C-alpha cells in the first residue's frame, strides 16, 4: 500500500507543471541575494491617506460582516459611476457590477464560468500567468497569439487563425502586463470583429486603465456590438497603489454577470466589507490622486528606461502599466532565465523572465523590469545596474555562454 503522498500526486493534473508563480520565485531570490526587487509588480510606497482613513473608519464603525456577495452597494454604484465618467457603456450597478477579491479572482471566475472542457480561449503571449492557469483549471485549451518586440504588435492573420468554432473567449489585457503596450483602436477592432464573428466573449483585464503615459486607453466594451459580449475587469490595486487590499470588480451585461457571480459566490463569496466601503470613497474622490500617480510613474518610467539603456540594454517603448521590457541581446546570456538569475545574484537587481508568460516556457531575449517603485529604489537599482557590463565580462571570461554568432 502506498504511504501518504506516495500514490497519486496531490495536485490536480490540470495544474501539473505550473509550479510556484514566477513572482514568488523571483521575490524570494531577490531577498536571498539582497537584490533590489524590480521583479514583482507592487508599489513600495503606500496608497493615498484618504483611502486608508476611510478603511479605518469603516472598521471602527463595525462593518465587520459579509457584504452582499455581488459587492457592497456603495462600491458597485461608485464603480458604475466611475466607468460612465470614463467611457464605455452604462452599467446598472445592481445587475452588471460584481466585486471580488482582486482582478485575478474576477478573471478566474469569468473563465471558470464561461468554459467547458473542449472550449478554447485565445490569449496574447506573453500573457499574465494566472490567465493560463484559469484556462487549465476550466478544462479549456489555450490558443496563443504572439506579441513580438519591440512594439509587441500581433499578426492579424495569426489572430484570425486562433479563433474558430470552439472559441469561447479571448482574454485581452490593455494596458498590457508584461510589455507596457496599450492596444490601438485598430487592434481592438480586429479583436472585436473576431468576437462578433465567432460569438466569443471578451474578458478585458483593464487594471492599468488609469496608468497610461502615451496615447489613450480604449475600453473594448465601447466598440460596436461589444457591450453585450465583454466582461471588463479592473481593481483598486494599481489605480490606488493598494495591491494588498484585494478588491477588484467586473462590469458585464446581466447574463454574463449572473454567470460570473455563480462562480464568485462559491470561490470567495464576498470581498472584505470595510475595504469595499473605503474603495467606494476612493473612486468618488480620488481623481486627483490618480492623476498625481500617473505623472509620478511616467517620470519613473523614463528614469528606469535611461538606466537600462545606459548599460547597453534595449528598453522597448512603454505606453502604460508598471513595466519596461528590455532586450539583453548585446550580452552573452543563454536565455531570459539565465539573464534574470545572473542579474539578481551577481548584479543585485531582480527582473522577471517573460518566458514564464509563454507557452511551454519558450525562452525570449528580453526581461521585464517594474518602475512602480520609490525614486530611491530606482536610484539604487541604477547604481547596481551600472555593474552589469563589468560583471558580464568577467563571467564571459570564465566561460559563460557567448552571444549567438560569436
Ligand atoms: N501583478 C504583479 C506583476 O505582474 C504581481 C502579482 C503577483 O505577485 N501575483 O508583477
Instruction: State the major sheet.
Output: 7 strands, mixed
Radius of gyration: 21 Å
Terminal Cα span: 56 Å
* Strand-pairing-aware structural class: alpha/beta
Beta-sheet strand percentage? 5-15%
What's the total number of strands? 12
Please provide the ordered H/E string of secondary-structure elements.
HEHHHEHEHEHEHEEHEHHHEEHEEHH
Associated small molecules: glutamine
Provide the low-confidence segments as ranges: 402-406
In DSSP terms (H or I, runs of 4 or more residues), the helix count works out at 15
The outline comes out as globular
Please, what is the average pLDDT?
95
Oligomer classification: single chain
- Percent helix, as a range, is 40-55%
Widest beta sheet: strand line-up: 2-8-7-6-5-3-4
Chart the SSEs and their pairings:
Layout: H1 22-33, E1 36-37, H2 49-60, H3 73-86, H4 93-96, E2 97-100, H5 102-114, E3 120-125, H6 129-137, E4 141-146, H7 156-162, E5 167-173, H8 185-198, E6 201-205, E7 230-235, H9 236-239, E8 248-251, H10 254-267, H11 273-285, H12 287-310, E9 314-315, E10 323-327, H13 336-347, E11 349-350, E12 366-370, H14 375-385, H15 388-397
Parallel strand pairs: 1-11, 3-4, 3-5, 5-6, 6-7
Antiparallel strand pairs: 2-8, 7-8, 9-10, 10-12
Helix pairs in contact: 1-13, 2-11, 3-11, 5-6, 5-10, 12-14
The protein binds glutamine (GLN).
Glutamine (GLN) is lined by residues 21, 23, 40-41, 177.
Amino acid at each position: 500500500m502506498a504511504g501518504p503522498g506516495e500514490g497519486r500526486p496531490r495536485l490536480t493534473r490540470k495544474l501539473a507543471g505550473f509550479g510556484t508563480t514566477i513572482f514568488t520565485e523571483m521575490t524570494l531570490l531577490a531577498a536571498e541575494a539582497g537584490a533590489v526587487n524590480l521583479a514583482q509588480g507592487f508599489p513600495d510606497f503606500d496608497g493615498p491617506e484618504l483611502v486608508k482613513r476611510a478603511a479605518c473608519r469603516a472598521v471602527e464603525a463595525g462593518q465587520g460582516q459579509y457584504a452582499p456577495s455581488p459587492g457592497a452597494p456603495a462600491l458597485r454604484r461608485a464603480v458604475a459611476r466611475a466607468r460612465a465618467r470614463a467611457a464605455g457603456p452604462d452599467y446598472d450597478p445592481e445587475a452588471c457590477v460584481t466585486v471580488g477579491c482582486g482582478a485575478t479572482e474576477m478573471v478566474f471566475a469569468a473563465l471558470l464560468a464561461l468554459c467547458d472542457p473542449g472550449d478554447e480561449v485565445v490569449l496574447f503571449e506573453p500573457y499574465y500567468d494566472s490567465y493560463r492557469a484559469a484556462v487549465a483549471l476550466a478544462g479549456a485549451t489555450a490558443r496563443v497569439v504572439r506579441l513580438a518586440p519591440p512594439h509587441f504588435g500581433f499578426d492579424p492573420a495569426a489572430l484570425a487563425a486562433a479563433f474558430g468554432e470552439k472559441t469561447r473567449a479571448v482574454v485581452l489585457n490593455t494596458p498590457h502586463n508584461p510589455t507596457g503596450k496599450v492596444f490601438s483602436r485598430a487592434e481592438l477592432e480586429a479583436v472585436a470583429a473576431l468576437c462578433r464573428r465567432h460569438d466569443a466573449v471578451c474578458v478585458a483585464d483593464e487594471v492599468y486603465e488609469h496608468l497610461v503615459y502615451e496615447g489613450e486607453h480604449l475600453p473594448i466594451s465601447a466598440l460596436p456590438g461589444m457591450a453585450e459580449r465583454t466582461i471588463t475587469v479592473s481593481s483598486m490595486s494599481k489605480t490606488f497603489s493598494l495591491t494588498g487590499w484585494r478588491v477588484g470588480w467586473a462590469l458585464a451585461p446581466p447574463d454574463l454577470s449572473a454567470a460570473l457571480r455563480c462562480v464568485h459566490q462559491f470561490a470567495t463569496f464576498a470581498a472584505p466589507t470595510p475595504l469595499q466601503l473605503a474603495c467606494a470613497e476612493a473612486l468618488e474622490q480620488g481623481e486627483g490622486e490618480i492623476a498625481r500617480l500617473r505623472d509620478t510613474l511616467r517620470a519613473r518610467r523614463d528614469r528606469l528606461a535611461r538606466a537600462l539603456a545606459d548599460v547597453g540594454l534595449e528598453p522597448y517603448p512603454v505606453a502604460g502599466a508598471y513595466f519596461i521590457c528590455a532586450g539583453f541581446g548585446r550580452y552573452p546570456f543563454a536565455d531570459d532565465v539565465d539573464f534574470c538569475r545572473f542579474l539578481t545574484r551577481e548584479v543585485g537587481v531582480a527582473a522577471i523572465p517573460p518566458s514564464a508568460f509563454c507557452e511551454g516556457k519558450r525562452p525570449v531575449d528580453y526581461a521585464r523590469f517594474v518602475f512602480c517603485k520609490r525614486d530611491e529604489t530606482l536610484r539604487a537599482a541604477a547604481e547596481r545596474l551600472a555593474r552589469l557590463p563589468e560583471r558580464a565580462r568577467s563571467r564571459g571570461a570564465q566561460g559563460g555562454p557567448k552571444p549567438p554568432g560569436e
